[in-house]
Amino acid sequence: MKKIEAIIKPFKLEEVKEALAEIGVEGMTVSEVKGFGRQKGHTEIYRGSEYTVDFLPKIKLEIVLTDNLVDQAVGAIVKAAKTGKIGDGKVFVSAVEDAIRIRTDEHGDKAV
Known about the structure:
Elements: E1 2-8, H1 13-22, E2 29-35, E3 42-46, E4 49-53, E5 56-65, H2 67-81, E6 89-95, E7 100-101, E8 106-107
Antiparallel strand pairs: 1-5, 1-6, 2-5, 3-4, 7-8
């Protein structure tokens, strides 16, 4: 099993969700987060004063999948989230040792 964590632009969430549904991904956790990468935020003017917005709003997706779906899921996320502009985000893939479904006490792939 693998865990995919993707940081994407907020307006791309629906496209990514639809792309993942098309390949059979049934569940995910979505969080509203703030952060910055190479873009280092931006400056804005509010009531005549300039200030720096260091942390930009992003969406974080967390998905745990069986190994056979990981490459398809990563491809779907990248394709759907890409705008070609700075700040499109990142995808991280890490190993998951075990998963337990609390309701049924199932372990491993069955719990996912």
